[in-house]
């Protein structure tokens, strides 16, 4: 079978409660030249039974089902999916969300327009807003971006510390997949790393309307909850480690000033106390929001 123009990359893990709604929403897409590429991350419930049943009912829609039985966690599971993919347009998919019927069509069309403008050899990413709902699909926030007070038009340097791209709301091209993956060990998350790479070496387009229901529940790994002060020091460590691997992989492509900025962030985890605060101020290693940066200086 020829590869569809879009491959939807779905990582599952004990998702029997949510999968029927997700799969139904995929079946209702207005753009139908897509296939589902699935990797199960070691489910112990009825997830595999549901997936095999869906495969039997929609054999033309399944590009592959990766069943190695290992529990890798979401970021490495999605990395495996990208590495196994073949389509020119890829979309991450979470098992507990519900896609609006026009999601694939709008994001695919936007990505093709970007390729016409910038060229297919440029890493390109499209992402949209999300509507936040609870377990029962009761609306919690019309706009995830407003809920989190995101500045989605931030400069490329801001992506080193601020991620405004949500994986399940993205579409990206083959060039982005090839450049960003496989995922480095110290990348913070698959979507965060992809956005960082596309912001620095390609283009990111934001679609300002929600294209899916982003479900929040007790089993969410990350979710939509606003960032908290606790664990701030650990996040500084993670930002710094990610900057270090970014420098290792792409350092030769960076201009001098950009190299120095990434190098400064990479070195942050080796400093403590007042030296760390001086380093943040000197190199302007800031996040979005005044209060957030005050907390960074006080508690990092």
From TrEMBL:
CDD domains: GT_2_like_d. Residues 8-116 form the Glycosyltransferase 2-like domain. It comes from the Bacteria. InterPro entries: Glyco_trans_2-like, Nucleotide-diphossugar_trans. It holds the Pfam family Glycos_transf_2. This is Glycosyltransferase family 2 protein. It comes from Thiothrix litoralis.
